[in-house]
Amino acid sequence: MTYSSLIRGLIWIASLATLWSCSEKSATPPELLEGEQLSYNFHIRPILSDKCFACHGPDANKREANLRLDTEAGAFAALKDSPGKFALVAGKPLNSEVYHRITSADPSLIMPPPESNLSLTETEVQLITRWIEQGAKYEPHWAFTRVEKPKVPTIEWGTNEIDRFVAAKIKSKGLEPNSEASSFELIKRASLDLTGLPPSLELLEKYAGFKGGNTYDKLLDQLLSSPAYGEKMAILWLDISRYSDSYGYQDDNIRSQWPYRDWVIHAFNKNLPYDQFLTWQLAGDLLPNPTKEQILATAFNRNHKYTEEGGIIEEEYRVEYVLDKTNTFSKGILGITMECAQCHDHKYDPVSQKEYYELYAFFNNSQEKGFEGDVSVSKPAKTPILWVEQEDLDGILSFINHPDTSKLSISVMGELEEKRTTYILNRGAYDAPTLPVEASTPTSILSFSPSFEKNRLGLAKWTTHRDNPLTARVFVNLIWQEIFGRGIVKSAGDFGMQGDLPTHPELLNWLAADFMEQGWNMKVLLKKILLSATYRQSASISSTHLEIDPDNLYLARAPRLRLPAENIQDLVLASSGLLVGEIGGPSVKPYQPSGLWEAATSGRGVLANYQQDTGNKLYRRGIYNFIKLTVPPPKAIIFDSSNRDRCEITRNRTNTPLQALAMMNDPMVLEAARVLATKLSEKYTKSDQSINEAFKRIVCRELKTEEKELLQNYYDTELKHFQTNPKDAAAILDVGEYPIHPRAITPQNAALMQVIVSLYNLEETITKS
Amino acid sequence: MDKEFLEQGLNHNRRKFLSRLSLGVGSVALGSLLIPDLFSGKKEAEESLMRALPHFAPKAKRIIYLFQNGAPSQLETFDYKPQLIKSFGQELPESIRKGQRLTGMTAGQDSFPLVGSYFEFNQYGQSRAWISSLFPHLSAVVDDLCIVKSMHTEAINHDPALTFFQTGAQVGNRPSMGSWLSYGLGSENENLPAFCVLLSRGKGNGQGVYSKLWSSGFLDARHQGVQFSNSEDPVLYLSDAEGVDKNQRRRMLDQLAAMNELSYQEFNDPQITTKVQQYEMAFRMQTAVPEITDVSKEPDAVVKLYGPDCLVPGTYAANCLLARKLSENGVRFVQLYHQGWDTHDNLPNQMIGQAKDVDQASAALITDLKQRGLLDETLVIWGGEFGRTNYCQGKIAPENYGRDHHPRAFSIFMAGGGVKSGMVYGETDDFGYNIQENPVHVHDFQATVMHLMGIDHEKLIYKHLGRRYRLTDVHGKVVNDLIA
């Protein structure tokens, strides 16, 4: 497909979406251009997949009338139930049963049948008809074709290749790109994207106006080399690898997987190429002479839940664990949701139940057990275990922040010596094995070369092979999602038939190809994106934007995105000066409303009661908050974090009153405001100076005159209130464990604290824009 | 509520700002607790189906689900089996067990001796339903109950079984029943969440609860259950810090609105106005929620009805009373969990304690709703995640025994909300082990509950990662026999 026809196709999709959503109200005829060539991938397959494949698709057991529409051979074959008839006849709708069935007025003939609760819109019927007229040409699924680097469009806009692709799309929509954001906006945006922290005053000053040698380019280099970079990137990967600090299930006792978390941060910081990053996690233990670091990385496959409920059936859970590994691999790394094929052939994607268990077989040879005893004999790690000694901590594992001299144990991967035979499990049930299968991968994605070992190492080689069509596409899309709030493919975890189509397919291919050419270099990828003019646009929204592109699919402006939960905590602590910049170590338990763990516990295990930490541990970055699976940290959930129960790759971004309550009343926010207020009032004599600096630390730009007035008035009102009610002043300043000098208990500090609380509650403060 | 105060508090600027959105405070159109994508123009994929909701006239408007966490024994509650008393100590016949899998806790036992209820049973009401002596108060309202003795489920361990009951799947991260109803029907009260969760614990052997049980899964987070706690903050972070009064909070909100408006002028982002709305909603919740959770003004008759425990926050009785108040105020789905029913040993003693916790308040809730004319439109559900074995776990004596998990047959009851009253449905065999007639699978139960709420369970769907999901997966049929 040529580039311009793709563009036309996409305009098309957009207008279709509009039509479809209004389909009940109006039946506007589709704006089909005369001679417009339809694409199977972009126009037809989404309809067939959504409305037809459940009964006429890959699932052989549920196939109706022996008709298969997901393959060319199946669709053009003579109909078995109606001799002499054909579902599709190229160029001839009237000879095609498909046409007659989708246009029939007879409820017993119409497709899809009424009892399916599905129906085709008029537009969809016309598209299919037109497609048949044009020859009903099939195409392989776009995401399953090899990544080829496309030619960059010749359009004069922007700084690098990304912009040429984006500009082409923007122009085709009748939009103009926004102008570049201000330097303060860019400094804040890039800091948040690369380190998850707001820029310090020093950083703002240094790069203000990007003057002299302090260029934007330099800023990016400085941020990318900051250790906070690894902490920022790790959050994404901890969602994918469903990292937590407890075992989950009913007793939910503590475990010690946190050295794996430290490794993820370390791996990002040393910019381990993505192919190796994956290989170590999938098969570090199978590499020749593996280091302890490579074995530690395999904890990736041991982060899922483990039951310690007495009396469970061991094999049921062992199978559950292998299923989780398989599903995490397919969703988080391949971007394909295969869970359906656990029980039956996939209804939409060409993955058979047999292929699912072939993939499952790679993970089925683990030494781990389904059960190692109930909570009364619970240990921080389960077989196979990596033991970390002091000499490792002094050497290759020095990135593990271990606070004492005890030996550490981490659950990791290790193979059985004698291979366990894998069977297809009927309906996915552990006690219903049917046929034995060998380890392999779905052929529709990429066949498994005989040169690969039939173990996890072979799987890693297959995954990171240049011909694997998914791995690189899925990862660059994830990074795009991190930066722009939504992927080029919106369904970042589903690149299959039912997934969303890419808004910029050529750009996705270009980025994926370039990523691999650059040796899977993550920092290079990020820098390229952040250097683009697309990224550097202002986030201001015009009425034209809202009219033509309310969801910002075409990126004629920078997105405005609420920060993830962890980074909200980081922003509050960093801007107040409370943040303890230590990296890694055992997870911490900051302030939390009382009684949450206690209300939900079975009463067994060491996590029955919440034992809040004190001192420095109250001021660590959000990534280090202790995650108890059955009761995840409340603010994390309020601000849409993953609950880490399963592999998640896209967080929601909601806007709720519970978030307002948390920002107004969380002791962490109040304490930060109090500490900053007292600090500033020691530094400055005048309130306007204090307000000025507080604003710059928290909102990361200079105050405007109008804002200055509003804040000063607010301060004066509050000051008057506290002068009349000194008891209130003492009460509100009494928050958090950070010490306060009795001298600092003043109406002035109380008023300044209120102003700072209000700054933390501004929409702009916790928004990347 | 202090309405006048709220409205007077609006300063001129903010009024202007909000009215520009023609969404003044108090007229915010809410589908639920949280403002949906009010301005983004986003359309749900299955919009046309959703627009048809409710699919037919609902019999119930609200649900109060009294979940008995840990699985109360059917054999000491509603399923009277004199045969088990006669066969005390005898081996469970293989012709009855039929290869049913057992948990690891009893699979290793040499013998499976049958044991009958320590508690006597009597028949009550016009329906002549059998109820054990543990439940005198429920016995008195038996003609309001619809007892189902033929429930069965697929899971045999607590976590998956609970998750299955609440979300329709044993794996985690699917939307809970309450989330589905919030998604389908929204809230009736703009100051309260559509889906509230209350926890309590008895003295019996406890199994934890998990926040994934009230998760909204892949649905928007506004459909998530909001957990009410018994600490000073009934909703997380609800109370203002000490030293902050209402006027001060109002001043801060006005300040925020004014500052946010400046930001809106620059960025034009509808999310900014949504944010301002959310702060207003939070402010209203700060007044509305404490009003509801305050039971100090309840008349003596009500306290007497629920029992003195209803004044002790965090007890089952207090939660039942709170559930009535929330429901009365339009909360679509109130989910209680009462823990402590996992009676592997020492069952008679544990049951006495657990029954004492729940009997009076459960009955009181039904009576209270009835007296207020609300029972017809409120569906009350009482039950656990599975049943318990008819054979003894561990040491056996007529007055001291234990029972293991049993998924194949167990009892629950419903009341009000369009179910038949004074009904006993389904029958198990003489051993209380297998269902003999009218089996009701968990998915059938879910389909029926949805039906009572006016929803066709096959049509309330959400498309996520390429697949259409329902509470009932691809199963479930409405049990019409249960519907009045």
What do you see in this structure?
The complex is a heterodimer of chains A (769) and B (484). With 769 residues, chain A is mainly alpha-helical. Helices cover 44% and strands 3% of the residues of chain A. Chain A is built from 32 helices and 6 strands. Chain A has helices at 3-21, 40-51, 53-56, 72-76, 97-103, 122-133, 161-172, 183-195, 201-207, 216-224, 228-240, 258-269, 274-283, 292-297, 314-333, 353-363, 390-394, 456-463, 471-484, 505-517, 522-531, 533-536, 543-548, 565-576, 596-600, 634-638, 657-665, 667-683, 687-699, 705-724, 726-733, 747-760, and strands at residues 385-388, 408-411, 422-425, 433-437, 561-562, 767-768. In chain A, the strands form 3 sheets. Chain A has a two-stranded antiparallel ribbon. In chain A, β3 (422-425) and β4 form a beta hairpin. In chain A, α8 packs parallel to α10 and α28 crosses α32. The model of chain A is unreliable at 1-31 (pLDDT under 50). With 484 residues, chain B is of the alpha/beta class. Chain B has helices spanning 3-8, 12-20, 47-51, 82-86, 94-97, 136-140, 158-167, 177-185, 246-267, 270-293, 300-306, 316-328, 347-371, 442-452, and strands spanning 62-69, 121-124, 129-132, 145-152, 195-201, 226-228, 333-339, 378-383, 387-388, 405-406, 410-416, 423-425, 427-428, 435-437, 440-441, 462-464, 467-469. In chain B, strands 1, 4, 5, 6, 7, 8, 11, 12 and 15 form a 9-stranded mixed β-sheet that branches. In chain B, a hairpin with a 6-residue loop joins β13 (427-428) and β14 (435-437). The longest helix of chain B has 25 residues, at 347-371. Chain B is globular, with a radius of gyration of 24 Å. The model of chain B is unreliable at 1-15 and 19-46 (pLDDT under 50). The interface between A and B is large, with 102 and 91 residues.
